[in-house]
Amino acid sequence: VHANDANLWGGGWYLPEKGRYEDVRGTHGVQRHDGFDEVDSRDGVARVRERVSWLDGADKVIATERRAWDFEPCDGGYRWRIETAIKATGGPLTLGATRAEARYSGLQLRLGPPFGTVEAPAIFHCSEGRTGHEEIRKKQAVWVSAAGVGGGMIALFDHPKNPRHPNRWHTRENQFGTAPLMDGDQILAEGETLRLHYRFLVLDDPVGAERLHGEFADFSVDMREEA
Predict the structure, then answer these.
(1) Which of 32, 39, 95, 100 could form a disulfide linkage to 14, CB 3.0–4.6 angstroms apart?
(2) No. of H helices and E strands in the chain?
(3) Is 181:194 a contact under the CB 8 Å cutoff?
(4) Boundaries of every domain in the chain
(5) Which InterPro entries does this chain map to (predicted)?
């Protein structure tokens, strides 16, 4: 994601006019960890609450962010709830996707070997019945799952409250995630807050669509705002 033309991912910019990645001096910002409000475990749930500031290449704060993470055991693995609240500070905030053709952005998961590689891709499924990363890429779905070639499964769920739900997805052989900026920039007025809600399932063994549809139904009625 680029924020007000600041590079917050640390790599090079993709320059369409040149067709390659290059370092653009003065554009690299940071997401600064400002502190934890809570790191706790109770009633079987581990809770983390974090404060973050976004700084552009000139070290100006352009956004503040509050993150809420909950981890809990579930049948066959673990459930991870993610909530974030991003507030534009010091002026409007424009969030945009990568300028490369893939147009990915947002919450992305890179899968390491042996879970998924270019040579041995993870096995992808989505809520709309499509199979394979090429069939799911750039299309809308409420969840996408990736089963490892050696076992295990990870599923990501997009909450109905999220902007542009159901979102498009970016999927490759060993990478997947929501792509909420694929269809265009998200612009926040100064002081406006963008809230995003996601859920991961991390499972020891792959499960079928019925289990994942049920998980989405449960997640869709979770209206907590704790970030």
Answers:
(1) 100
(2) 2, 17
(3) no
(4) 2-220
(5) DUF6807
